[in-house]
Design goal:
The chain is of the alpha+beta class and 93 residues long. It has helices at residues 35-43, 59-69, 72-76; strands spanning 16-22, 47-54, 84-86, 89-91. A two-stranded antiparallel ribbon has the order 1-2. The protein starts with 15 loop residues before the first strand and ends with a strand.
């Protein structure tokens, strides 16, 4: 008797990515924090490494997760904007 080969299953696409998240305390920051300024942000608790982000989240769901990791946003800043690093500069996504 021959045994059947196991059925190949297609892997599901992963919706979760892991990214560092940096809270910029000054809203008019134009350049990506590096070296000394990045160390200061880390020491002040403004950097979260490898935050699990689900790509299927809506903006409000993502904002709720950001508020969980940065509780200061709940008490000090009711509204905040997202930005991203692009070739050393801060840009709006």
């Amino acid at each position: 008797m021959r045994s059947k080969a196991p059925a190949l299953t297609k892997k599901k696409a992963c919706n979760v990515v892991y990214n560092d998240l940096i809270l910029l305390p000054v809203s008019d920051t134009k350049t990506v924090p590096t070296h000394r300024s990045r160390i200061t942000l880390e020491n002040d608790g403004f950097v979260v490494h490898e935050l699990a982000i689900d790509k299927s989240w809506q903006e409000e769901e993502f904002k709720a997760e950001v508020r969980k990791v940065f509780p200061i946003l709940v008490s000090k800043c009711a509204n905040f904007k997202f930005a991203k690093a692009c070739y050393g500069e801060i840009v709006s996504p």
